[in-house]
Amino acid sequence: MTGDGTQVVDVMTCKTDSRQLDKYRQYTDEKERVTRLLLLLAGRLARLDNSLVQLPPSGDSQPITAVFCVAFLLISVDCVCM
């Protein structure tokens, strides 16, 4: 933990038992992981949106199918890695 988080842990170490401190650390670790995953997902969705915007307005559905296949693979990779 960095910045203000370190000061909070220092205060909690003095004022609480180790069980409460472990709960706090677990909470902050989980919050950090969720934030990281949300940022990753937002970046991937932005890339997908950019890809869809750049598609030509023709009636050919092959490029759109390719974009959705790539999106599915990106989502699948995250599911396997978790």
Give the secondary structure arrangement, pairings included.
Elements: H1 4-15, H2 18-53, H3 62-81
Helix pairs in contact: 2-3
Concise overview:
The chain is mainly alpha-helical and 82 residues long. 83% of the residues lie in helices and 0% in strands.
Write structural notes for this entry.
This protein is mainly alpha-helical and 82 residues long. It has one domain. Helix content is 83%, strand content 0%. It is built from three helices and no strands. It has helices at residues 4-15, 18-53, 62-81. Helix 2 runs antiparallel to helix 3. The longest helix has 36 residues, at 18-53. The chain is rod-shaped.
Number of domains: 1
How far the N terminus sits from the C terminus, by CA atoms, comes to 22 Å
Average of per-residue pLDDT values: 77
Shape: rod-shaped
Evaluate the radius of gyration.
21 Å
Keywords:
mainly alpha, 83% helix, 82 residues
